[in-house]
């Protein structure tokens, strides 16, 4: 089989065709559309406007706000989502009893669709019957209008909290897989040398999963750049007045609500370029160590 290379080509060609038809060609069309002005989705004769869509992008206050919101979310994802996932993985990796229970429990939010999670959190935030206000009534406090447009900090927190919570389990599994693959001989030798649990984590386990951490960070950044479903369900159309838009939600708003296809296409190109740039930076910071 290894001598007959045509077998490998037979296996690879269908995948290349699939990627070309459903990924490369649409992306090329998207780049092309970003240089045109469309009057409608069915406009077959768009007007070529060059780089005007990109120029407009960087003078659009809502776009700049959505970009800042996305950058803030990236920071929160790296600190809380990745950080909590790493801590949970270290804790579960150190126990034997109930480890399977914790693995299933932490991974469960990934199984539930983002739409269902968004609707669930909307019910939590409901003024009359929401769980949060019911808890406040039980402890003797007054109800709160959680989605008060005057309190943007709280509204932003309500949006990003479920986004961060949903994918903790996904990165937890990745970290746990990396930790379970570490050499037990090295960890046992560290215990014999007198290393405490925290010292093993700091000087052995975390350095040895540096490559895994790099992958998780890249996934976290690229996933955050295109986040859409949960924020859009909790705060449709960037409520209020586009102030809670992210890059993904604002791109959708321009494409389907404003029907500005060319401008939305420019958004998509920008998101791809930003993803490549941020991934390159993270790869430079966490350079791959082939010895680990």
Shape: globular
Give the fraction of residues assigned to helices: over 70%
CATH homologous superfamily identity: MetI-like
Strand arrangement, largest sheet? 1-2
Individual helix count: 14
The value of Rg in angstroms is: 23 Å
Separation of termini? 32 Å
Order of helix and strand elements from N to C terminus: HEEHHHHHHHHHHHHH
**What proportion strand?**
under 5%
Poorly predicted runs of 5 or more residues: none
Task: Describe the structure in brief.
This protein is mainly α and 292 residues long. 71% of the residues lie in helices and 1% in strands. It has one domain: MetI-like fold (Orthogonal Bundle), CATH 1.10.3720.10.
Mind sketching the topology for me?
Elements: H1 5-33, E1 36-37, E2 47-48, H2 52-57, H3 61-93, H4 99-111, H5 114-125, H6 131-138, H7 152-166, H8 168-180, H9 184-192, H10 197-208, H11 210-225, H12 229-234, H13 247-257, H14 261-285
Antiparallel strand pairs: 1-2
Helix pairs in contact: 1-14, 3-8, 3-11, 4-8, 9-10, 11-14, 13-14
